[in-house]
Amino acid sequence: MEVQALLITFREVLEALLIIGIINTYLLKTQNGKYKKYIWLGAGLAVVASIAVAFLFQVVFTGFAAMGSEIYLKIGIMLVSSILLTQMVFWMASHSKDIKKNMEGKMDKFISTGNVAGMIIHSFLVVLREGIETVFFFAAITGGDIGAALEGWGAITGALIAATLSYLLFKGTMSIPLKTFFKVTGVFIVLIAAGLFVQAISMMQDIKVIGSVVPHLYNLTWLLPEHPIDHAHFVRDTGLTPVFSGDIGIFLKALFGYSSMPSLEEVVAYLGYFLVIYLLINVKSTSAVPARAKQRSETQEKEAFHQTEKKKQNIVSDIN
Question: Measured in whole angstroms, how far is the alpha carbon of residue 311 from the centre of its chain?
Fold first, then answer.
Protein backbone atom coordinates (compact mmCIF):
# COMPACT_ATOMS: atom_id res chain seq x y z
CA MET A 1 0.00 0.00 0.00
CA GLU A 2 2.81 2.41 0.87
CA VAL A 3 4.49 2.01 -2.53
CA GLN A 4 1.15 2.60 -4.26
CA ALA A 5 0.58 5.69 -2.11
CA LEU A 6 4.09 6.95 -2.94
CA LEU A 7 3.61 6.58 -6.69
CA ILE A 8 0.12 8.11 -6.70
CA THR A 9 1.05 11.02 -4.42
CA PHE A 10 4.24 11.66 -6.33
CA ARG A 11 2.41 11.76 -9.65
CA GLU A 12 -0.51 13.90 -8.47
CA VAL A 13 1.56 16.39 -6.46
CA LEU A 14 4.10 16.71 -9.26
CA GLU A 15 1.39 17.49 -11.83
CA ALA A 16 -0.11 20.16 -9.59
CA LEU A 17 3.27 21.74 -8.76
CA LEU A 18 4.38 21.69 -12.40
CA ILE A 19 1.30 23.64 -13.47
CA ILE A 20 1.59 26.12 -10.57
CA GLY A 21 5.32 26.46 -11.29
CA ILE A 22 4.71 27.12 -14.98
CA ILE A 23 2.19 29.85 -14.11
CA ASN A 24 4.45 31.55 -11.55
CA THR A 25 7.48 31.39 -13.84
CA TYR A 26 5.49 33.02 -16.62
CA LEU A 27 4.25 35.75 -14.28
CA LEU A 28 7.83 36.55 -13.27
CA LYS A 29 9.01 36.47 -16.88
CA THR A 30 6.34 38.98 -17.90
CA GLN A 31 7.00 41.26 -14.90
CA ASN A 32 3.69 40.31 -13.30
CA GLY A 33 5.06 38.74 -10.15
CA LYS A 34 2.57 40.70 -8.06
CA TYR A 35 -0.08 38.16 -9.10
CA LYS A 36 1.82 35.16 -7.68
CA LYS A 37 0.13 35.50 -4.30
CA TYR A 38 -3.25 34.92 -5.93
CA ILE A 39 -2.01 31.74 -7.60
CA TRP A 40 -0.74 30.39 -4.27
CA LEU A 41 -3.97 31.48 -2.57
CA GLY A 42 -6.01 29.39 -5.01
CA ALA A 43 -3.64 26.43 -4.56
CA GLY A 44 -3.83 26.70 -0.76
CA LEU A 45 -7.63 26.83 -0.79
CA ALA A 46 -7.64 23.73 -3.02
CA VAL A 47 -5.51 21.81 -0.50
CA VAL A 48 -7.96 22.72 2.28
CA ALA A 49 -10.89 21.71 0.07
CA SER A 50 -9.19 18.37 -0.74
CA ILE A 51 -8.81 17.62 2.97
CA ALA A 52 -12.50 18.43 3.44
CA VAL A 53 -13.37 16.05 0.58
CA ALA A 54 -11.27 13.32 2.22
CA PHE A 55 -13.10 13.84 5.52
CA LEU A 56 -16.50 13.77 3.81
CA PHE A 57 -15.54 10.68 1.86
CA GLN A 58 -14.50 8.93 5.08
CA VAL A 59 -17.83 9.81 6.71
CA VAL A 60 -19.73 8.38 3.73
CA PHE A 61 -17.63 5.20 3.78
CA THR A 62 -18.22 4.78 7.52
CA GLY A 63 -21.95 5.08 6.85
CA PHE A 64 -21.78 2.31 4.26
CA ALA A 65 -19.78 0.17 6.70
CA ALA A 66 -22.46 0.65 9.37
CA MET A 67 -25.03 -0.68 6.91
CA GLY A 68 -22.81 -3.64 6.03
CA SER A 69 -22.52 -2.47 2.43
CA GLU A 70 -18.91 -1.23 2.37
CA ILE A 71 -17.84 -4.12 0.13
CA TYR A 72 -19.97 -2.75 -2.70
CA LEU A 73 -18.53 0.73 -2.21
CA LYS A 74 -15.01 -0.73 -2.25
CA ILE A 75 -15.68 -2.52 -5.52
CA GLY A 76 -17.11 0.64 -7.07
CA ILE A 77 -14.14 2.70 -5.91
CA MET A 78 -11.67 0.19 -7.33
CA LEU A 79 -13.37 0.06 -10.72
CA VAL A 80 -13.71 3.84 -11.03
CA SER A 81 -10.13 4.37 -9.80
CA SER A 82 -8.84 1.95 -12.40
CA ILE A 83 -10.56 3.97 -15.13
CA LEU A 84 -9.43 7.32 -13.72
CA LEU A 85 -5.81 6.21 -13.34
CA THR A 86 -5.74 4.98 -16.92
CA GLN A 87 -7.37 8.18 -18.19
CA MET A 88 -4.91 10.27 -16.19
CA VAL A 89 -1.93 8.60 -17.86
CA PHE A 90 -3.30 9.07 -21.37
CA TRP A 91 -4.33 12.66 -20.69
CA MET A 92 -0.91 13.65 -19.42
CA ALA A 93 0.85 11.83 -22.26
CA SER A 94 -1.12 13.80 -24.85
CA HIS A 95 -1.12 17.19 -23.07
CA SER A 96 2.31 17.34 -21.38
CA LYS A 97 3.88 19.19 -24.34
CA ASP A 98 1.01 21.71 -24.51
CA ILE A 99 0.59 22.46 -20.79
CA LYS A 100 3.04 25.36 -20.80
CA LYS A 101 1.46 27.01 -23.84
CA ASN A 102 -2.10 26.57 -22.51
CA MET A 103 -1.30 27.93 -19.06
CA GLU A 104 0.51 30.96 -20.46
CA GLY A 105 -2.40 31.69 -22.80
CA LYS A 106 -4.88 31.65 -19.92
CA MET A 107 -2.65 33.87 -17.79
CA ASP A 108 -2.40 36.38 -20.64
CA LYS A 109 -6.18 36.69 -20.66
CA PHE A 110 -6.38 37.10 -16.89
CA ILE A 111 -3.56 39.69 -16.83
CA SER A 112 -4.94 41.73 -19.74
CA THR A 113 -8.35 42.00 -18.06
CA GLY A 114 -7.03 42.26 -14.49
CA ASN A 115 -9.09 39.20 -13.61
CA VAL A 116 -7.63 38.30 -10.20
CA ALA A 117 -10.64 36.13 -9.33
CA GLY A 118 -10.03 34.13 -12.50
CA MET A 119 -6.42 33.46 -11.45
CA ILE A 120 -7.49 32.26 -8.01
CA ILE A 121 -10.27 30.05 -9.39
CA HIS A 122 -8.00 28.61 -12.10
CA SER A 123 -5.21 27.59 -9.71
CA PHE A 124 -7.84 26.35 -7.24
CA LEU A 125 -9.43 24.03 -9.82
CA VAL A 126 -6.07 22.77 -11.09
CA VAL A 127 -4.92 21.69 -7.63
CA LEU A 128 -8.39 20.54 -6.48
CA ARG A 129 -8.62 18.13 -9.39
CA GLU A 130 -5.37 16.47 -8.34
CA GLY A 131 -6.46 16.49 -4.70
CA ILE A 132 -9.80 14.80 -5.34
CA GLU A 133 -8.14 12.19 -7.56
CA THR A 134 -5.64 11.47 -4.76
CA VAL A 135 -8.44 11.02 -2.22
CA PHE A 136 -10.27 8.64 -4.53
CA PHE A 137 -7.16 6.60 -5.33
CA PHE A 138 -6.20 6.37 -1.65
CA ALA A 139 -9.66 5.04 -0.89
CA ALA A 140 -9.14 2.37 -3.55
CA ILE A 141 -5.73 1.14 -2.39
CA THR A 142 -6.60 1.15 1.33
CA GLY A 143 -10.09 -0.27 1.14
CA GLY A 144 -11.58 3.01 2.32
CA ASP A 145 -9.16 3.98 5.10
CA ILE A 146 -7.91 7.24 3.59
CA GLY A 147 -6.32 8.32 6.86
CA ALA A 148 -4.00 5.31 6.82
CA ALA A 149 -2.65 6.32 3.41
CA LEU A 150 -2.22 9.96 4.41
CA GLU A 151 -0.34 9.07 7.60
CA GLY A 152 1.93 6.44 6.03
CA TRP A 153 5.46 7.01 4.80
CA GLY A 154 4.44 6.44 1.16
CA ALA A 155 2.27 9.54 0.78
CA ILE A 156 4.69 11.77 2.69
CA THR A 157 7.69 10.51 0.73
CA GLY A 158 5.89 10.88 -2.60
CA ALA A 159 4.95 14.49 -1.82
CA LEU A 160 8.50 15.34 -0.72
CA ILE A 161 10.07 13.80 -3.84
CA ALA A 162 7.59 15.65 -6.07
CA ALA A 163 8.28 18.97 -4.31
CA THR A 164 12.06 18.47 -4.55
CA LEU A 165 11.93 17.51 -8.21
CA SER A 166 9.70 20.49 -9.04
CA TYR A 167 12.08 22.85 -7.23
CA LEU A 168 15.10 21.49 -9.12
CA LEU A 169 13.28 21.70 -12.46
CA PHE A 170 12.21 25.32 -12.05
CA LYS A 171 15.57 26.39 -10.59
CA GLY A 172 17.22 25.04 -13.73
CA THR A 173 19.51 22.63 -11.88
CA MET A 174 17.86 19.61 -13.46
CA SER A 175 16.57 18.99 -16.96
CA ILE A 176 14.16 16.12 -17.64
CA PRO A 177 12.10 15.60 -20.81
CA LEU A 178 8.63 15.71 -19.23
CA LYS A 179 7.04 13.58 -21.93
CA THR A 180 9.54 10.77 -21.32
CA PHE A 181 9.27 11.20 -17.58
CA PHE A 182 5.49 10.88 -17.58
CA LYS A 183 5.69 7.85 -19.87
CA VAL A 184 7.95 6.02 -17.41
CA THR A 185 5.84 6.84 -14.35
CA GLY A 186 2.73 6.14 -16.42
CA VAL A 187 3.80 2.50 -16.83
CA PHE A 188 3.71 1.99 -13.06
CA ILE A 189 0.38 3.81 -12.75
CA VAL A 190 -1.13 1.57 -15.44
CA LEU A 191 0.11 -1.52 -13.56
CA ILE A 192 -1.58 -0.23 -10.40
CA ALA A 193 -4.79 0.41 -12.35
CA ALA A 194 -4.72 -3.14 -13.76
CA GLY A 195 -4.22 -4.53 -10.25
CA LEU A 196 -7.19 -2.58 -8.87
CA PHE A 197 -9.38 -3.75 -11.74
CA VAL A 198 -8.53 -7.42 -11.16
CA GLN A 199 -8.95 -7.12 -7.38
CA ALA A 200 -12.44 -5.70 -7.99
CA ILE A 201 -13.24 -8.75 -10.17
CA SER A 202 -11.97 -11.05 -7.40
CA MET A 203 -14.08 -9.30 -4.74
CA MET A 204 -17.19 -9.57 -6.91
CA GLN A 205 -16.58 -13.29 -7.23
CA ASP A 206 -16.08 -13.61 -3.46
CA ILE A 207 -19.53 -12.15 -2.75
CA LYS A 208 -21.09 -14.09 -5.66
CA VAL A 209 -21.98 -11.01 -7.72
CA ILE A 210 -20.36 -12.79 -10.65
CA GLY A 211 -19.56 -16.47 -10.99
CA SER A 212 -16.48 -18.29 -12.22
CA VAL A 213 -16.04 -20.93 -14.89
CA VAL A 214 -12.65 -21.91 -13.45
CA PRO A 215 -12.20 -20.68 -9.82
CA HIS A 216 -8.46 -21.47 -9.76
CA LEU A 217 -6.82 -21.46 -13.17
CA TYR A 218 -3.44 -22.32 -11.63
CA ASN A 219 -1.81 -22.45 -8.20
CA LEU A 220 1.55 -20.74 -7.58
CA THR A 221 1.45 -20.94 -3.80
CA TRP A 222 4.46 -23.26 -3.90
CA LEU A 223 6.41 -20.54 -5.70
CA LEU A 224 5.03 -17.27 -4.35
CA PRO A 225 2.10 -17.17 -1.88
CA GLU A 226 0.08 -13.98 -2.13
CA HIS A 227 -0.06 -13.52 1.66
CA PRO A 228 1.97 -14.60 4.75
CA ILE A 229 -1.10 -16.57 5.91
CA ASP A 230 -1.07 -18.58 2.67
CA HIS A 231 2.65 -19.13 3.22
CA ALA A 232 2.02 -20.51 6.73
CA HIS A 233 -0.83 -22.74 5.54
CA PHE A 234 1.31 -24.17 2.73
CA VAL A 235 4.11 -25.03 5.16
CA ARG A 236 1.59 -26.60 7.57
CA ASP A 237 -0.18 -28.67 4.90
CA THR A 238 2.81 -29.86 2.88
CA GLY A 239 5.81 -29.56 5.17
CA LEU A 240 7.54 -27.66 2.39
CA THR A 241 8.61 -24.01 2.20
CA PRO A 242 7.57 -21.87 -0.79
CA VAL A 243 10.38 -20.54 -2.95
CA PHE A 244 9.52 -16.92 -2.10
CA SER A 245 8.02 -15.45 1.04
CA GLY A 246 4.39 -14.47 1.39
CA ASP A 247 5.62 -11.00 2.37
CA ILE A 248 6.77 -10.53 -1.22
CA GLY A 249 3.43 -11.82 -2.46
CA ILE A 250 1.41 -9.36 -0.37
CA PHE A 251 3.64 -6.54 -1.64
CA LEU A 252 3.06 -7.53 -5.28
CA LYS A 253 -0.66 -7.98 -4.64
CA ALA A 254 -0.94 -4.50 -3.17
CA LEU A 255 1.08 -2.94 -5.96
CA PHE A 256 0.08 -4.91 -9.07
CA GLY A 257 -2.86 -7.10 -8.02
CA TYR A 258 -0.86 -10.35 -7.93
CA SER A 259 -2.78 -13.55 -7.14
CA SER A 260 -1.26 -16.97 -6.59
CA MET A 261 -4.58 -18.71 -7.38
CA PRO A 262 -6.47 -16.50 -9.82
CA SER A 263 -9.73 -17.43 -11.46
CA LEU A 264 -10.05 -17.64 -15.22
CA GLU A 265 -11.99 -14.39 -15.20
CA GLU A 266 -9.24 -12.57 -13.29
CA VAL A 267 -6.60 -13.66 -15.80
CA VAL A 268 -8.82 -12.73 -18.74
CA ALA A 269 -9.60 -9.34 -17.16
CA TYR A 270 -5.91 -8.65 -16.49
CA LEU A 271 -4.76 -9.57 -19.99
CA GLY A 272 -7.81 -7.87 -21.51
CA TYR A 273 -6.97 -4.63 -19.72
CA PHE A 274 -3.50 -4.51 -21.29
CA LEU A 275 -4.93 -5.48 -24.67
CA VAL A 276 -7.27 -2.48 -24.50
CA ILE A 277 -4.36 -0.22 -23.51
CA TYR A 278 -2.33 -1.56 -26.45
CA LEU A 279 -5.18 -0.95 -28.88
CA LEU A 280 -5.77 2.57 -27.55
CA ILE A 281 -2.09 3.42 -27.98
CA ASN A 282 -2.05 2.06 -31.53
CA VAL A 283 -5.25 3.86 -32.52
CA LYS A 284 -3.88 7.09 -31.11
CA SER A 285 -0.57 6.65 -32.93
CA THR A 286 -2.33 5.82 -36.20
CA SER A 287 -4.61 8.86 -35.98
CA ALA A 288 -1.66 11.09 -35.12
CA VAL A 289 0.16 10.28 -38.39
CA PRO A 290 -2.47 11.83 -40.74
CA ALA A 291 -2.72 14.84 -38.41
CA ARG A 292 1.04 15.44 -38.63
CA ALA A 293 0.95 14.90 -42.40
CA LYS A 294 -1.89 17.41 -42.71
CA GLN A 295 0.02 19.93 -40.60
CA ARG A 296 3.14 19.50 -42.76
CA SER A 297 1.04 19.91 -45.91
CA GLU A 298 -0.53 23.11 -44.61
CA THR A 299 2.89 24.47 -43.66
CA GLN A 300 4.27 23.67 -47.11
CA GLU A 301 1.27 25.35 -48.76
CA LYS A 302 1.79 28.47 -46.66
CA GLU A 303 5.49 28.56 -47.55
CA ALA A 304 4.69 28.13 -51.26
CA PHE A 305 2.10 30.92 -51.05
CA HIS A 306 4.58 33.28 -49.37
CA GLN A 307 7.25 32.46 -51.96
CA THR A 308 4.77 33.14 -54.80
CA GLU A 309 3.74 36.46 -53.24
CA LYS A 310 7.38 37.40 -52.82
CA LYS A 311 8.09 36.64 -56.46
CA LYS A 312 5.11 38.77 -57.52
CA GLN A 313 6.40 41.66 -55.44
CA ASN A 314 9.86 41.33 -56.97
CA ILE A 315 8.39 41.34 -60.49
CA VAL A 316 6.32 44.44 -59.74
CA SER A 317 9.36 46.10 -58.24
CA ASP A 318 11.47 45.34 -61.35
CA ILE A 319 8.76 46.75 -63.66
CA ASN A 320 8.54 49.94 -61.63
Answer: 53
> 20-73, pLDDT tens digit by residue?
888 888 888 888 888 899 999 999 999 999 889 888 888 887 777 777 677 888
Distance CA 89, CA 123 (A): 21
Residue 257 forms part of a structural domain = no
Could you report the per-residue pLDDT of 200-242, keeping only the tens digit for each? 999 999 888 898 899 999 999 999 998 889 999 999 999 999 9
C-alpha angle 281-283-288 in degrees, rounded to nearest 5? 95
Range of the domain at 26: 2-209
- Does a structural domain hold residue 311? no
- Counted domains in the chain: 1
Contact (CB, 8 A) for 62 and 146:
no
Q: Cα torsion for 203, 207, 211, 216, to the nearest 10°?
A: 60
Q: How many CB atoms lie within 10 A of CB 176?
A: 12
pTM for this prediction: 0.71
**Is residue 35 a part of any domain in this protein?**
yes
Is the residue at 95 inside a domain?
yes
Alpha-carbon span 162 to 93, nearest angstrom? 18
